[in-house]
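Posted in: Structural Biology > Protein-Ligand Complexes

Title: Requesting predicted complex, nicotinamide-adenine-dinucleotide in pocket

I'd be grateful if someone could produce the 3D structure tokens for the following input. Sequence and ligand are given below.
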Amino acid sequence: MKVGIIGSGMVGATAAYAMVMRGVGREIVLVDVNKERAQAEADDILHAAPFAHAINVHAGDYNELADSKVIVVTAGANQRTGETRLQLLGRNASVFKQIIPSILEYAPNAILLITTNPVDIMTHLAARMVGEHKLPPRNVIGSGTTLDTARFRALLGRKVGVDPYHIHGYVIGEHGDSEVFAWSLAAVGGIPMEEFCKHQNVDLCGPAREEIEQKVRRAAYAIIEGKGATYYGIGSALSRIVEAILKDQRTILTICKPESEVAGVKDVTVALPHLVGGQGVISSFPLPLNDREQSLLHASAAVVRKAIEQLDAEVS
Ligand code: NAD
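-- Reply #1 --
Done. Output follows.
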């Protein structure tokens, strides 16, 4: 199966590399406005295939995206040091006006997986553009808080001394400063987290939780400060989402998609856990959040809704 990646910078190239390491897909096409970069990344990643999986990685133009099952969109400007994801919005909205119509011309039936930040708003925008082309907006999903959820599970796993595979916990809402940690639903090996911690004598009281939240919330800022960009975590997350779709795995992932209402906020795109498989999102289910988490989710969805309205006001 063919996967397209638009934008072969740090995130796009790392996603392609992760797919080759994991054996996701049969062919990967890298498209970038910087053709030399796309060619160089494709060649470099192809040379890793003999050590992992026989996937044909090559650079190409939009016409080579025909018959792709999934197209990952990572093109756009990156967050500058100290810049919030929302500040990126205007710069990346104009990039999407160029690339989404070109994708739809050659691969109208592909599932678009948006990663470009601010990812919630860019996903909302892409779904709207797809709708304007009379194609189903449900074909558009965003990576949402898949990465934040992975960061949460990794830190929680380290704290309680358990493989993060056995940690269940969701970060939902905006992929950004207002994201919400669903602590009330966190579990270790099926045991509610509080019970597990009590039994194992692990301190996960207020300050310990706050520390984990801060580390997850500030992760992108800290990594960008240290090395200029984040890409291993998100590249792996993208590879995992694409795998769930190509192999129709029915995996629960905190991706984002346009929602008619989230916690009282209408027409918004934020991350929630969804069942993901061959057709993209198969179904969604309500989370039994506590009152505090529900009101934090409302606030987070309102942040994204406001940014969508600001963008609309600028355009009109
Ligand atoms: P990068 O600068 O390394 O790569 C971006 C690539 O996009 C470049 O190669 C550039 O040439 C290409 N590009 C720009 N305009 C284009 C166009 N019109 N058509 C085709 N290609 C175009 O940046 P990066 O580190 O790879 O980050 C990419 C995006 O991913 C950023 O918006 C970043 O904020 C986002 N990101 C999202 C998450 C997440 O969890 N959603 C995590 C990390 C990064």
